[in-house]
Amino acid sequence: MMAKDLPDIAALRILELGASNYFKHEYPERTTQLWTGTRLPDRSLFDGLATPGKVMAELSAARRGRYDVVIAYPMRYPGYHPRHWVYGLLRRPLQPWAAVTRAFGVSLLRLYDLPIPIVAIDMDDAFTLSRPGLFLLDRAVAFLKRELPADRWQALTGSVHPHIATFRYRNSAKWRARIDNLQPISLPQWMIDPAITDGPFPQKTADLFFAGAVHGNSTLRSDGVKELDRLRAAGVRIDIPAAPLPHSEFQRRMAASWLAWSPAGRGWDCNRHYEAALAQSVPVMNYPTILRHQPLADGVHGVYYAPEPGGLERAVLAALSDKPRLQGMALAARDHVRAHHTRKAYCDYILRLAMQNRTPPATQAAEADCAGPA
Question: What is the pTM of this model?
Fold first, then answer.
């Protein structure tokens, strides 16, 4: 489809279903958000709870032309899972119907053949797909996943297949089409301080900054802290706050450091990758385990290291040996993140993707049971 034939994304009307509200944040006037989660956001950031009546009314309106695109965030657990009822009732005891039913909101897309594109977005930390959202591999024109394994077939582990998908799945035309629909997406950024991001290059008073949970988190972090101790003993200026910082102070301290250590946590993709760049610091990341959207390039926007012992130390010492190069990398990383990883860039990319891949809605026949191969 030629660019001149695409609708203007600035005019698109959006129906957002799920427990995230990026589009309602960014485009509140033209987004209707129906919330499925148990923990409610600020009242201005959703338009109603995703009870069957409300969802079906809006999907009927979408079929009549009220909306141009549907954004759907799959649930981690099925709507009938007791956790939805328990937490929902505890938090909204005076709305028992909404507490029990709103977790089914996204699943109601099964019932509607819509004349507009659906985009599914899985922002979970897990590298696997949750079973409740599998039907969207057929329904959606694109299924975006933040923690998308380098071998996309591994996303089926535990939900479609109890182990790694076998050749029977991998040779199935239907499952290959579903896997081809999986694409990476990143974490969008919006807590941006223009004085730091757009200001002059910060004065550096530390060589490496790290602020994040270690105990009870990734083994990459507990292993890496030992290497930071050795770097400090070798004379590297390490800034590790003793307690959690307010976000403004977190940004300021990171901006005052040449490097910001950003190891994987529960998932590989991490806000700190992008926050460091927006603070004009260079992120130091372990080699990626996932496919990435508009990645920070090694040696251009960031420093990557091998997770085996000594990898972090070697990478940090090599990077600090050339400060002029680090300054150029910090500026390149800032510009790259500003162009591709802010919340507006995130939303606009997804809207363009939806318009570029518009196809007729899936039929019931195409929406086969996702429990096994064709």
Answer: 0.91
